[in-house]
Predict the 3D structure of the following.
Amino acid sequence: MAAPQPINVEDLNIYYGDFMAVEGVDVQIRPRSVTALIGPSGCGKSTFLRTLNRMHEVIPGAYAKGKVEINGEDIYDPRVDPVNVRRRVGMVFQKANPFPTMSIRDNVLAGVKLNNRRISKKAAEELLERSLKGANLWNEVKDRLDKPGMGLSGGQQQRLCIARTIAVSPEVVLMDEPCSALDPISTLAIEDLIHELKEEYTIVIVTHNMQQASRVSDRTGFFNIAGTGQPGHLIEVDDTDTMFTNPTNKQTEDYISGRFG
Amino acid sequence: MSSPTTVDIAPTMRSKEERRLPWYHLVVTGLAGLLVAIALLAIFDALSIPGAILLGFVFHLLFGYTYSRIREGRRWAMERLMTLVVIGAFAIAMFPLLSLLWEVVGRGLVRVVAAAPTPFAFWTTDMSGIIGGADAGGVVHATIGTLLITLWASIISIPIGLFTAIFLVEYADVGWRKVLGKGVTFLVDVMTGIPSIVAGLFGLALFIAFMPDQSVRMGIMGAVALSLLMIPTVVRSSEEMLRLVPMDLREAAYALGVPKWLTIVKVVLRTAIAGLTTGVTLAIARVIGETAPLLLTVGMVTSVNWNMFDGRMSTLPTFINQQYRAGSANCMSDTVTNPINQEVYACSISTNIDRAWAAAFTLIVIVMVLNIVARMVSHYFSPKLSR
């Protein structure tokens, strides 16, 4: 495998129908590191995150214009199949969403099974164990792999979703407020997991929790919005330490120190 | 030292008058209501069991409320009144259903079990050669006709209906597809209101237009007419079921790199299968008892016809209609001879009516079995939430 390349976003404008939600994003996301996106509600950070694996356009009328280069390939090139992009860029959602009709085992192997890909029983078991261990869930569920995935606790469900995502071996993992519905213990489990995952994956995480951003991320981006009906902007990106101690932009400083608005 | 809680608790304690009375007080007011009702009806010389029960219930409401108002207070009295009204409404709603089942099972089952010449012969014989008041004959031809025509109507309607619903939910989101979706929804609504006789005429006209023989009658014509009634029901119920599947699950599948069509097949349809089955069963139950379109398109016949594309077929609803209209048989002598196989049957005046009830019972049994199968499918495939 070639050395991982950064994700290059150039002049990206994101729309919902006629409404421009995010304007002019230029950013370089470092490979095998954690980048956190913070900012007030409605500023477009989740929207931006969803453009990184072309999930944004799943919403009727939504589209994005600009350039997003992953591994040197522009994923918004008309020749690119979004399905292939999503196989390389996985996503974990705010609300844990295991497939309700599937067992824990099938949930982890969903990426394989739903795509009708043939896989030997042995390879499937290996993939299952590797993914669940990768999501720090193996010890908790190894004795009930055939039980429904919905029977797990909220935090376990979210780690099940992470296991499901890493089972398709993506290069990038996007996380959209993955801990916002979890208790502190489960949050800690996921944050520890993020630390381990960045050895192998490029991680972009959206969070409302600034302590979380400072705990888990190497770099932090701050999104802000001038007012209702206006597009959001990426104000500033920098190393997390710098962002939280000595931000360049006044808006960032106000937001981080709680003097916002 | 006075704790603040004692102050708060005192007013929430019920006073002695507001304590709830045990349930048997309701029996007393109920009996009193019934007695008053019987007395009143007797005075006006209009005594009957249903009248006594209905009027007795009304008096029970009145007495129960007044008594409870005095002994338990206003709030509990209102609670008792509303509980009784709700139970009463439920009983009134259940009454037609239960009495229908009672009547059909009573008349139909008895006839099926006691059918001449052997028990259950009603389900194994047809009507060929049965004339006059012959105490024989059965519905095997009509049952096969009903099952075949309903099966073909389902084969036509379920794919069309399901694919339409998938289009409406998954594809009619923006642009021209949204416009088309609105048009389709409107037409489906219009289709829901088509009277069944009109559907029958359509089926008839459609085939006559392409056939040299104007008097052509085939099972498939009936299936087409029924599918016209079935499609809107299937579309409507499936659409609602597919919309219930959370967007989360579709996105979860997309995020794993699953193409849209596979997401629909393996996630959306799979998650909604329990509801889809119920909807389809209801659509089948709606058309399986249709009479008018089948009278027009399929006609009647006395023996089994397995071929959907050639000749008339008999169905249970048309059989019921025909037998009941035939009314009491005219028994000239004690026996009737079958002109085909020369068998001799007893003559029974009520035989036609009996056959109608037994056929109605058969139809209900078929619908029941269908419902049970659908229940089992939904139970087996529904999302599992237990730990």
Chain B has a mean pLDDT of 88. DSSP finds 13 helices and two strands in chain B. Chain B has two domains: 2-113, 122-381. The two ends of chain B are 50 Å apart (CA to CA).
